[in-house]
Structure to design on (699 residues):
């Protein structure tokens, strides 16, 4: 009974319309939160006593990293739902989310590299966070490459769902082994601010950015989801009626 | 109740964007052979693969002995044999070895039984040569020997007479007749009518897309 | 008139025909025997990954330095990178042949658990590729200036590492079953998942070379292998079924 909304979502036209209606509810708050976070982080927050103004890239780097991981998890969960309950909508969500997650991973790597220059003097270090993100990036590329290798969309969906589930189980193992490896070899210090606590003036903009990025992901994935649904259903009549010839 | 009956109800299957099976329905009872005909691309192979459980239909159901096959696929598979277009044989193994590893995971059988099925398909002489060295017709005969050896009630055959000469086609017909006479069922996709006795024969024509 | 009672007379009766089916162990043994027999009849295939391994380890002295004292420092890395890449090469013939001639399909339709059958195939594959690689590793190590006391540790770690590689490779091979020229994609999918093996394995080797106790790292490698043994055949069976649809 309470699951009827869930099952109705599986119907493509309903999914398409719902996604369209929800998008502004994600997009506008995301824009506001990110704007507030940027103002707070780039301008209002005080400089760090160790790193000066260089640390401010954290306001983009940390949320990107968080999202790169969250999106992979969402892909895996959506894939699992699609596999178990044979819901095409779940597979469409996974397909829509993948490039966004990969972009966040790339953003994490780039901002991490830019942060590295003032911190370590080089654009790259094999610190555990960056190395893990790099491997996560390869996981995303593998997922998208596997999808692209199949002409049959249904098979692409299901095979990549298995990969995503295998991947998400392995991510903690990979991360742990990388952290362990790094600790053995006197790696460079971790990329966070040295102090365990941050003053509210620094923390609040960071939280705003986390939330804003998450909502931003929501908005973008909804838009991409609409595109996915249209692509998958392009032969159906409701698509013609909805979008015009 | 749990009689040996195969039933398909309102089966719909899409392959990509093609609606290959549109509400296909059929019933095959013990002693009957359902002959599937239709032009290329009509969905004969797709229907057989859906019955096997390999393809998942978007709508409809396949039932065996009154129960949906999806509820217990392994048990269904244990009672069913599927022969696709190509004989499922390893080229580096002999015919005999192929049968041992192919059917051997399903059931235990004595060497005498293996010899008997090879004899039945006329393959005793070349059963111990690598399959690589056999002709297409001989390979098909080895596959038919495997079918017999599996000793299952339901046969799903995709173009079983391919590459067989006239004598071979009669062999297929005779094997199916014997199978039906013992109460077995068969579903066969064909381009030419089977040399099977009329009594147990049913027909299903699938339309082209 | 056929005298065969090949069609069970119990067809007409409601109960299922009581075939005597072989037990799971007998089936696994049968698959193992079959794959070993097949491999030995095409023995030239078996040599290729080993030759590749030898070739890759030769690249490094040629590219860097012939001095054994210096090679010793990079030996563990070279051995493991070469072992990983050679394992990938060997994955070609795990499922591909059986998928192409229809025998894999017959196993999926045999009524037996595909997971167990694939596990047996993976075990055969390891015996044919991973184990020989592990036996060659000490030889390659000597050529890289590794002292004799380290050889048992190298043998042990590469043995365990190749087990996990075969298992991971089985998942990758199952996922890319229908893809033409899947070599690069297979590597992209498998290598990130193999990072923990690489890290723990190379570390164990490094400890062995330095003469330090490496038991803990071996235990970690063994844990990875056990983890792989429980999950990889399941994932591989799921992927195979999807690709056979």
């Amino acid at each position: 009974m309470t699951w009827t909304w869930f099952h109705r979502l599986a119907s493509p036209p309903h999914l398409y319309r719902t996604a369209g209606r929800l998008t502004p509810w994600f997009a506008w708050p995301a824009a506001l939160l990110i704007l507030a976070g940027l103002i707070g982080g780039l301008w209002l927050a005080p400089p760090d006593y160790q790193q000066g103004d260089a640390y401010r890239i954290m306001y983009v780097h940390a949320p990107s990293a968080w999202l790169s991981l969250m999106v992979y998890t969402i892909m895996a969960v959506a894939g699992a739902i699609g596999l178990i309950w044979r819901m095409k909508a779940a597979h469409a969500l996974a397909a829509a989310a993948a490039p966004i997650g990969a972009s966040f991973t790339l953003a994490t790597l780039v901002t991490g590299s830019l942060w590295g220059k003032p911190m370590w003097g080089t654009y790259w270090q094999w610190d555990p966070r960056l190395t893990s993100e790099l491997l996560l990036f390869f996981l995303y590329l593998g997922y998208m490459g596997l999808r692209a290798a199949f002409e049959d969309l249904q098979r692409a969906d299901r095979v990549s769902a298995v990969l995503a589930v295998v991947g998400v189980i392995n991510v903690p193992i990979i991360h742990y082994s990388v952290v362990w490896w790094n600790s053995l070899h006197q790696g460079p210090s971790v990329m966070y601010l040295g102090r365990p606590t941050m003053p509210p003036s620094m923390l609040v903009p960071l939280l705003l950015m986390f939330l804003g990025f998450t909502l931003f992901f929501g908005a973008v994935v909804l838009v991409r989801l609409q595109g996915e649904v249209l692509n998958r259903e392009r032969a159906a009549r409701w698509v013609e009626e909805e979008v015009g010839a | 109740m749990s009689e040996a009956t195969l039933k398909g109800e309102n089966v719909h299957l899409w392959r990509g964007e093609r609606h290959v099976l549109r509400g296909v329905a059929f019933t095959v009872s013990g002693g009957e052979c359902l002959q599937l005909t239709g032009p290329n691309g009509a969905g004969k192979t797709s229907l057989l693969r859906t019955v096997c459980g390999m393809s998942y239909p978007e709508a409809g159901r396949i039932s065996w002995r009154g129960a949906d096959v999806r509820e217990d696929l392994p048990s269904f598979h244990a009672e069913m044999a599927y022969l696709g277009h190509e004989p499922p044989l390893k080229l580096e193994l002999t015919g005999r070895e192929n049968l041992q590893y192919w059917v051997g995971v399903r059931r235990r059988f004595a060497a005498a039984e293996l010899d008997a099925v090879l004899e039945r398909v006329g393959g005793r002489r070349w059963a111990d040569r690598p399959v690589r060295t056999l002709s297409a017709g001989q390979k098909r005969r080895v596959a038919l020997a495997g079918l017999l050896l599996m000793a299952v009630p339901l046969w799903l055959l995709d173009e079983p007479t391919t590459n067989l000469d006239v004598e071979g086609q009669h062999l297929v017909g005779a094997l199916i007749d014997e199978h039906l006479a013992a109460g077995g069922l068969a579903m066969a996709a064909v381009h030419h009518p089977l040399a099977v006795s009329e009594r147990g024969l049913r027909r299903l024509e699938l339309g082209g897309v | 008139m056929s005298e065969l009672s090949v069609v069970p007379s119990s067809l007409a009766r409601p109960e299922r025909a009581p075939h005597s089916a072989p037990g799971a162990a007998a089936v696994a043994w049968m698959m193992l025997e079959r794959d070993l027999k097949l491999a030995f009849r095409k023995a030239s295939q078996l040599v290729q990954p080993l030759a590749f391994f030898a070739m890759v380890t030769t690249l490094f002295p040629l590219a860097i330095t012939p001095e054994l004292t210096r090679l010793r420092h990079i030996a563990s890395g070279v051995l493991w990178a070469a072992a990983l890449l050679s394992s990938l090469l060997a994955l070609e013939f795990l499922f591909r042949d059986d998928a192409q001639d229809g025998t894999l399909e017959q196993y999926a339709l045999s009524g037996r658990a595909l997971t167990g059958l694939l596990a047996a195939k993976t075990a055969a594959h390891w015996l044919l590729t991973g184990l020989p690689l592990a036996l060659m590793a000490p030889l390659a190590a000597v050529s890289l200036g590794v002292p004799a006391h380290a050889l048992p540790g190298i043998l042990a770690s590469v043995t365990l590492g190749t087990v996990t590689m075969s298992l991971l490779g089985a998942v990758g091979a199952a996922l890319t079953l229908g893809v033409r020229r899947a070599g690069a994609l297979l590597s992209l999918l498998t290598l990130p998942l193999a990072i923990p093996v690489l890290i723990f394995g190379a570390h164990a080797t490094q400890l062995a070379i330095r003469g330090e106790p490496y038991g803990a790292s071996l235990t970690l490698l063994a844990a990875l292998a056990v983890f792989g043994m429980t999950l990889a055949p399941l994932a591989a069976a799921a992927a195979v079924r999807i690709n056979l649809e």
